[in-house]
Amino acid sequence: xxxxxxxxxxxxxxxxxxxxxxxxxxxxxxxxxxxxxxxxxxxxxxxxxxxxxxxxxxxxxxxxxxxxxxxxxxxxxxxxxxxxxxxxxxxxxxxxxxxxxxxxxxxxxxxxxxxxxxxxxxxxxxxxxxxxxxxxxxxxxxx
Amino acid sequence: xxxxxxxxxxxxxxxxxxxxxxxxxxxxxxxxxxxxxxxxxxxxxxxxxxxxxxxxxxxxxxxxxxxxxxxxxxxxxxxxxxxxxxxxxxxxxxxxxxxxxxxxxxxxxxxxxx
Lengths: 143, 114
Fold this sequence. Notes:
The complex is a heterodimer of chains A (143) and B (114).
Chain A: E1 10-19, H1 25-36, H2 43-63, E2 69-77, E3 80-87, H3 99-105, H4 108-119, E4 122-128, E5 132-140
Antiparallel strand pairs in A: 1-2, 2-3, 3-5, 4-5
Helix pairs in contact in A: 1-2, 2-4
Chain B: E1 3-9, E2 15-23, H1 28-40, E3 45-56, H2 58-72, E4 77-81, H3 85-93, E5 101-103, H4 106-113
Parallel strand pairs in B: 2-3, 3-4, 4-5
Antiparallel strand pairs in B: 1-2
């Protein structure tokens, strides 16, 4: 699977691979925040990006990755940032979850999906039994 | 990254859980353990103080929801103290503002338990 191309000319790509374990999620969160802070994002937008990347990693951990790693790619462009999260596991289908169901079910998995979709401008999800799961999220710089 | 958990008895049979730090997939089990222990000891009126929490993710929200569900089975309640705008935003967009009492200070959260 190839990462989705940035909408505009790339200003740089940072790749990170972390062990698919809970204690490493904070490292991914902080590293991606550092990359995002090089772009003209507001503090609130960077917090959104941190949460989205953490939820993506948490999903990967909760659904298991056979090789035990999560690959993260951050591509910065003038318009924003494209985050690609890949693992070898079979993640859950990222269905739209309604706000009403969150309080009823309180399922962490669905909360995570809901947050990713709410905080990022674009979310694309693909899952393949051989290649694993890929989540591509875009956050655009507010004009 | 860590979370500090401090549990203290307050007015009546209410307990306050002070949390300091970041609540994520790594640290949320510690928060869950503290809340579970209180509920197992039949303390069903809780105030969870998030004033010093800098970050919370879905696993943290899940722990709070799980606690709320358990205390409600016994006629209890969980009120939250939260002043961090980013964390308030997470409760807003998930709609959890509708199921939790969220207050700006501990006194108000305690008063609402009564």
